[in-house]
Automatic annotation (TrEMBL):
Gene Ontology terms: cellular component: primosome complex
Domain Helicase C-terminal: 487-640
The protein's name: Replication restart protein PriA
Cofactor(s) essential for the protein: Zn(2+)
Organism of provenance: Cystobacter ferrugineus
Top-level taxonomic group: Bacteria
GO terms for MF: 3'-5' DNA helicase activity; ATP binding; ATP hydrolysis activity; DNA binding; zinc ion binding
One Pfam family in the UniProt entry: PriA_3primeBD
Subunit structure of this chain's protein: Component of the replication restart primosome.
Gene that encodes it: priA
Catalysed transformations (reactions): Couples ATP hydrolysis with the unwinding of duplex DNA by translocating in the 3'-5' direction; ATP + H2O = ADP + phosphate + H(+)
């Protein structure tokens, strides 16, 4: 193929389209698609990406093309399959291609600089020499947390990784080593060496695991795009199925990509992959240092490492000869990015699998309705794990109807109690047996709002259209959207009436447990208490060591944790997410309740779940209490079909925010009129909802509006979105407009 004289280039700037540059003779024959290059753009130079030869401009164009200035790397950063995926993402999610490419690269490759080889020739590893922390270590919380991290992950762990998880861990590890509790070892890092292969590999699988593994092995052996839903109840051993599928892919000389929602909260998963596959695992997430992320990326790109494990951005990892993609907890909202390129990593994983001809496994105990509908239509094959490992029983579920069991206040204090008598009795009984309790409430703070007893006015944030939350530990009112904190007023600012503290949060639950069950050791796990990675690890480690009897927390307690001592899970208020103005409110309520309930009874003792609610007849609550995912999903899908919501329609949200309420409203109406004039034929089924003020009308001082487009297929929406995108150049810069394709949240 002759060297191109003209090049198609995407520039790493927030501009749409591809640009044509001339190729100077000195660079002839040195260009390959996916290479990073230096190009002039405007009055400066910028990072560019060579995409391939370009067609010459029309003779009438009469333009003088600028030349490429420099090639920044010998081999392309991006292989052809990734370029194809990034092109799709830019077009589907309406975002500049150059910015999409730059955002997919690791630090060290995102600037207009020549590539530097990341070579950590020697890497230090730490390994625990004990199986549990000695009692004397409790007086040294930093050492205790660091040792707990090593025990949780298991095996040899890079000191670099421990230092990212726990600030100051390097010095702490030295102290642990001096006490004979940890061994530190420096080794030459050899990517691709599969040290420790087969560690912690169970000899026998359950019959359901065995059947699922056989199907996935056959699919990997056959090759080609084959998507699966692995629907397994909590504790059924989905991770072992993933590991066996990855083993088979390696045997076939193929690479694997594993996506998890929040890797910082699931060190067990990374530990299991590392103990099974050793240094053949690259871990990709933002907590790693820039040099380390670059090293892992380069190892994957060269093919010296064949397994990538990471969060949503790892969907762009350059895994060579990709044969298997796993998306664990595929229902989790964390897979949707809510800024810049607003992509859904689960969906892109399926697209990448189709482009690469790879097997795709979407795993969950509570699959998203989109995935479930694709299974019902025959697009995905369903594998089921209906029973827990070792025949452990599913937890028994009990409803506490707060209409009948309204908590009584024996002390006649101003604040009504939160915990019903059945809940208190169950907690006291569990703690008396030496077992542990998780209390779940997805609301932070002490009281969720302050209300004037006289005029009914609530205390709101000055910059956001939300009530301020009272945090008793700080004695402050905090906005959970912009982070502003204020002192607590003594009286209503409107009428000087007394203020009532209403609504409940985790801080108040923690205080009530300590008051009502004084013998219990209580701790709280939410974003207010886990203020650092060290504190988070310390809390989880203390709970794992059974130094905490009752753990009160938000959804942070529902994800990725396996505590054998937990036999009782209590949902303090199942109603908090039901009233959110979002068509997915019921689905998310069911998912969250099921996931947190799955924390109970994962050890040898059976589990029990108590759910407090004022709405026991609400569909997600009633179905969850009956372990009835099928019944819930069938009913919810019928409701979605009747109202034309996903998965029976495709959507795009056009969101606006600006300092001026009048200007933002005017732009919203202008865009609504523009869309109305350019709607496709009625037979295409495209509908416009709005423009309307967003459910939360103001955040950080900016007024928010939105428009919603619905259509039977994305293809019906695409031409209209392209027209709208082109029109945005006419919008005043004071109003920010974003297009969110396949939006996850309506707020």
């Amino acid at each position: 193929m002759p060297a191109p004289s003209l090049a198609s280039v995407a520039v790493g700037r927030p501009v749409r389209g591809e640009y044509t540059y001339s190729v100077p003779e000195s660079l002839s024959g040195r260009l390959s698609p996916g290479q990073r290059i230096l190009v002039p753009f405007g009055r400066s130079m910028t990072l560019g990406f060579f995409l391939g030869p370009a067609a010459p401009p029309a003779e009438s164009a009469n333009v003088k093309l600028k030349p490429i200035l420099k090639v920044l790397e010998d081999s392309p950063s991006l292989p052809p399959d990734l370029i194809a995926l990034l092109r799709f993402a830019a077009e589907h999610y309406r975002y500049p291609l150059g910015e999409v490419i730059r955002g997919a690269l690791p630090p060290g490759l995102t600037k207009a600089e020549e590539e530097k080889e990341a070579k950590p020739d020697v890497q230090e590893f730490a390994e625990a020499l004990v199986t549990e922390a000695p009692a004397a270590l409790r007086r040294a919380p930093a050492q205790s947390a660091t040792l707990a991290y090593l025990l949780t992950v298991g095996g040899r762990v890079p000191v670099e990784e421990v230092a990212h998880a726990i600030p100051g861990a390097r010095e702490t590890l030295r102290k642990l080593a001096s006490r004979g509790l940890v061994r530190l070892e420096q080794v030459v890092l050899a990517p691709g060496v599969r040290e420790g292969l087969g560690q912690n590999r169970p000899e026998h699988l359950t019959p359901e695991q065995d059947a699922a593994v056989k199907e996935l092995h056959a699919a990997v052996d056959t090759g080609g795009f084959q998507p699966f839903l692995l629907h397994g109840v909590t504790g059924s051993g989905k991770t072992e199925v993933y590991l066996r599928a990855v083993e088979r892919a390696l045997e076939q000389g193929k690479g694997s990509l594993v996506l998890v929602p929040e890797i910082a909260l699931t060190p067990q998963l990374v530990g299991r992959f590392r103990s099974r596959f050793g240094a053949d695992v690259a871990v990709l997430h933002s907590a790693l240092k820039d040099r380390e992320r670059l090293f892992h990326w380069q190892a994957l790109r060269k093919g010296t490492v064949r397994i990538a494990v990471g969060v949503r951005s790892a969907v762009f990892a350059p895994v060579e000869n990709l044969g298997l993609i796993v998306v664990d907890e595929e229902h989790d909202p964390s897979f949707k990015q809510e800024d810049k390129l607003r992509y859904q990593a689960r969906d892109l994983a399926v697209v990448r699998g189709k482009q690469a001809g790879a097997v795709v496994v979407l795993g969950s105990a509570t699959p998203s309705l989109e995935t479930l509908e694709n299974t019902r239509r025959g697009r995905y094959r369903k594998l089921e794990l209906k029973h827990r490992v070792d025949d452990r029983p599913m937890p028994t579920l009990q409803c506490v109807d707060l209409r009948q069991e309204r908590p009584k206040d024996p002390l006649q204090t101003q604040e009504a109690p939160i915990l019903s008598q059945p809940l208190l009795d169950a907690m006291a009984e569990t703690i008396g047996r030496g077992q542990q309790v998780i209390l779940f409430l997805n609301r932070r703070g002490h009281s969720t709002f302050l209300l004037c007893e006289v005029c009914g006015t609530s205390v709101k944030c000055g910059d956001c259209d939300v009530c301020l939350t009272y945090h008793r530990s700080q004695n402050r009112l905090v906005c959970h959207y912009c982070g502003e904190a204020h002192g607590v007023p003594e009286h209503c600012r409107e009428c000087t009436g007394p203020l009532l503290k209403l609504g409940i949060g985790t801080e108040r639950v923690e205080a009530e447990v300590a008051e009502r069950i004084p013998q219990a050791r209580v701790a709280r796990l939410d974003r207010d208490s886990a203020t650092s990675a060290e504190r988070l690890t310390e809390l989880l480690a203390a709970f794992a060591r059974r130094e905490i009897d009752v753990l009160v927390g938000t959804q942070m307690v529902a994800k990725g944790h396996d505590f054998p001592g937990v036999t009782l899970v209590c949902v303090v208020m199942a109603d908090t997410s039901l009233a959110i103005p979002d068509f997915r409110a019921s689905e998310r309520t069911f998912h969250l309740l099921t996931q947190v309930a799955g924390r109970a009874g994962r050890g040898k003792d059976p589990g029990r779940v108590l759910v407090q609610t004022y709405n026991p007849d609400a569909e997600p609550v009633r179905r969850m209490l009956a372990h009835d995912f099928e019944g819930f999903s069938e009913g919810e899908l019928e409701r979605r079909r009747a109202l034309s919501w996903p998965p029976y329609t495709r959507m795009a949200a056009v969101r606006l925010e600006g300092e001026s309420a009048e200007q933002t409203a005017s732009v919203a109406r202008f865009l609504g009129d523009f869309i109305g004039r350019h709607m496709p034929p009625a037979s295409w089924g495209v509908r416009l909802l709005g423009p309307a003020v967003a459910p939360i009308s103001r955040i950080r001082g900016k007024t928010r509006w939105q428009l919603l487009l619905k259509a039977p297929t994305h293809a019906a929406l695409a031409p209209l979105l392209a027209r709208l995108e082109a029109k945005l150049v006419d919008i005043p810069s004071a109003v920010r407009v974003t297009i969110d394709v396949d939006p996850a949240a309506m707020l």
